[in-house]
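All the exercises in this workshop are built on plain-text protein records. An example says more than a description, so a record of this kind follows:
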Amino acid sequence: MTNKQRVHAALEGKPVDRCPVTVSYNQLYFQDHVAEITGGPWWEAHRWYASSVERHMSVYRQLLQAVPFDLLQPCHSPSGNPDDVEFVERADGPYRHEKRAGTWTRLEQHASGFAFDYHANETRHVFSREDIDRRLPAPGPDRAPGPDECPYLRLVVREFGRDHFILTGGVIGTLYSCGHHVGQTNLFTMLLDEPDLVEALCERITACNIAEIRRLAAFGGDAIYIDDATATSDMISPALYERFSLPYMKAMVDEIHRLKHKAILIYFGGVMDRVEMIAATGADALNMECSMKGFVNDLGEAARRIGDRMTLYTNIDPVTVLQDGTDADLEVEIRRQVAAGRAARGLVISTASPITPSTPLARVQKFLELGRKMGARG
């Protein structure tokens, strides 16, 4: 089977020669490990994301040769005009130079090891429906992407799309997205104190997400994901999930399917008290976090309760098992999860969360090797 045939079959519950093997958000793995794989400086991700499409693709081929995931999640666009950007090592560190503007920005190496970092918004900007209209205007008529839009993505689809399964991109679910406008901490009191305003914001976010889903589908590829961050048992009750997430997830999944793409749901948090509702979205696959932070996500139990309604990703712990465990630990856990997940419609062998910056290349290669071995038919 080709990579593309294998993943489609796994998502549809059809026979496969082996389970597909991937990791959550493998584009994040590449950006955090591109320096390790290519031998470049620690700031190589910055240069890679700002390079010409030809150089970007040359590096991408090198990355895939070293770590050939079965589901590809390409980057979209260069960071700025490649002809206008250069990276220069000075005595006090590396800088990004915007030649036309004449600006020099010193690159910072994060203590976490991640190539890029961000902080959740905690400022409230939306207090009324008028504020929603101001900050998040209703999407206009659909438009086809321009010929120069998302050049990295276009080339990956063109070069690899015939035989490889490609996640063209994705959107963030309503709850986490609300935090961008009202503050992440404020949001959880607003669910109780101002539910109508939050609902109006969720409706607008969904409309904007559907517009983005249509744009992503226009580039080709095979699937679009929805990351339903914070809509989990460690954050909200099942009743709040049913009101502020579920109907919007269904609408987005329906649109992805209308566009002939697969819909993959990502949940970083506890899901066992709402796994049936997640299955009711009609999505093709569920990628859930491993047990941590006080909740238990039991793959075998999820597989039994979901049955033939969804394909499951395994939720192998990326820290305890992949980063810190032995090869024997990794093999035992993959074998256990493959056996537990067989009750689901199909199975994709995966880590539960993105791979950490501290996980060496050899461990990821071993994971792919063992996953393909343990996930063979029978």
About this structure: Residues 195-217 form the longest helix (23 residues). The domain at 3-23+69-77+118-374 is CATH 3.20.20.210 (TIM Barrel).
